[in-house]
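Both lines are quoted verbatim for reference:

——
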Amino acid sequence: MRVTILLIIAVLAVFAYGAFSDTEALFDTYGFSGQNFLERPYVIITSIFLHGGIEHLLSNILIWLFFGFAVEKELGAAKMLAIFFLGAFAGDLASLPIYGFNTVSIGASAGIFALIGVGMLVRPVDLSLYPFFVPVPLALLGMFYAIYNAYEFVFGPAANISYIGHFGGLIVGLVFGLKEKGFKQSMKIILVTLAVMILLPLLFLLLVGRI
């Protein structure tokens, strides 16, 4: 859990620095794009720690806390870091053919989606209080994020969000999760979670109908 906290502190420090800087120049210089990567390969790292606004930052940090803690506790700091950064790299690379070679992307979202992918499999019943301060199992929250991301990519209005990048990170996390839990156990977790997501709204409608 200590490494997760250190990563979040680093993101907060960079955000605070950006608040007193020329953010456009900061993003153009240290954000990820194909062109920037050819000229300055380190942007594949620096872009992760940049965020476009307080809402972007806080929404990432809140989900990061629960999944980061769970993965670090289960797999250790080294594996958690590997999954996070590989997910972030995969997200950047996956976004290139969709959003263009010169489009700049920033944020830790793809790395966080990697933690979501592995966390929902290796610690499925750990509880998160995000986003409504109601205890929700990580498997259920992770599945919701995956489905919501797919929906927004297909049906949502055009937005400055790399949904494809999120999927790149999520796939990395799921691969690690499958390796840790095994195919059968992983599929059982996924199918049970999907069943719960379907049954809960039906149960709610039945209860409301009886009142």
